[in-house]
Write a structure and sequence with these properties.
Layout: H1 2-16, H2 19-43, E1 51-58, H3 63-70, H4 73-91, H5 95-105, E2 111-117, H6 123-139, H7 141-146, E3 151-157, E4 174-177, H8 183-204, H9 209-216, E5 224-227, E6 230-233, H10 236-270, H11 273-278, H12 283-315, H13 324-351, H14 355-369, H15 371-374, H16 376-381, H17 386-391, H18 398-407, H19 416-442, H20 452-461
Parallel strand pairs: 1-2, 1-3
Antiparallel strand pairs: 3-4, 5-6
Helix pairs in contact: 1-12, 3-8, 4-5, 10-12, 10-13, 10-18, 12-13, 13-14, 13-18, 13-19, 18-19, 19-20
Amino acid sequence: MIKVFHIAVREFLATVLTKGFLFGILFPPILIAIMSILMPLLMNKAAPKVKGHVAIIDATGEVAPRLERAFTEDAIRQRRDKRQGAMLDEAGVPKPVQQAAKSGQGEPAPSLTLKVLPIGTDVEVAKAAIRQDAAAGASGGKEADEVSDPRLALLVIPLDAVAPQEGKRYAGFDMFVAPKLDIEVRGDVEAQVREAIVDARITAANMNVESVRAITSRPEASTKAITSTGEKKGSEIAQLLIPGAFMLLLWISVFTCGQYLLSSTIEEKSNRVMEVLLSAVSPIQLMAGKILGQMCVGIVMLTLYGSAGIFGLVAAAMLDFVDLSNLAYLAIYFVIAFSLIACLMAAVGSAVNDIREAQSLLGPIMIVLIIPMMLWMPILRNPNSTFAQVASFVPPISPFVMVLRVAGSEKIPTWQIPASIVVGFISVGVFLWAAAKVFRIGVLMYGKPPNIATLIRWVRMA
């Protein structure tokens, strides 16, 4: 046991003390923290100035007057501030950034005017102005300077959009835009046209616009979760993403350290270091020590990333979305998942001579292991489905499926948690037994790499 411990310490230190590991484990959380700070700030930086006019051919005569009020400088700025404030609140941006945006230091409001064209105007001629102004702006130089008020969009409102013929439905409208018109400006113009057409329809039906708008406005729900510390604002997105984050955390820690185990085993075998180690310890002790050492590396990664996630939830006042018992289950399922994957990696690493040969053996295994990643949303939305319950007892994917199920919002049968843990540890024993037999033979064999059928034969004969 002491020899196994010494090998584990050697494997642990050989991994965690490398510059590549320190950079790889520290860089992602630092990058996420930096991006979470920079993204709101960058979103509020000044965008390219949008200046020009929107032309309209209004056959109804009712839509254009309403749009003229919608495209005044004050109306555009109010919509910009309202949209920007809503985005900031929803994203949870710090108050100083919100105040900067509201004080006009954020994105400038577009400078748009509405030009009403005669009803008989040729649509093709009106569209040609968009092409000409866009081409002049793209060429730059003197031609771009001459276009002081470029045409950015053309709206064509048919008569049926407000007053349809008897027995027919309301018609839509046509909107032609410059090829590089800002997407937010395009969306704002489209939204204002829709609102103006609806208002014209309401007026044409001899109804009060304000009253109808008030009646048909969609009521907003204030959803709050009842917790042990009081009422908290609910978040459906958090309830979906937190279980996925649990599984992703388990996946990253398990497969990162599993890859370290695979590469170190192949490297020691190809460099003949393995033969020196086997002169002092048995193959089983060597394999056990390497698995134990890499498991400690995985625990370090799990603890670091998990602590960063918990800190983020505390900062966002969302810790109530995580049941602390799920952290204990995460640790247990990590031991099971890593042991299963490490056995596969150690067996494959001992049987091949380079990483390319290992990829051909790991291909079928990875196809199976990627199932929880591909189907995590169906499993999370229906954790008590037949597939989810069966997959909870099928190694080596069972730990990943169970992490999703126990972290989800729907309660699963209580007996399945201890049952899956017992089945998991039994599977670990079986995998260790099979991996030890492959490791004992493959670690000293060189030449042509074995296939999966050969590995199975080694397990049966060793």
